[in-house]
Description:
The protein has 60 residues and is α+β, with helices and mostly antiparallel strands.
Amino acid sequence: MLRSLDPYGDAVFNHRQVPLLLSELDRLPAACGGDWVKQARELCQVVQQRVHRYLWFVGD
């Protein structure tokens, strides 16, 4: 799922894709981590609370 992120384009994840994204975040090397991982996890939790919610990453 992380490979879908493009710094210049948008990426959208639905409630069914978020668990896959979370599992990839779990496997990230420590060198790639940071505050952004914590923030991404929090946003994933919001999406998982209800259907018809999406996590949007907006590129430049």
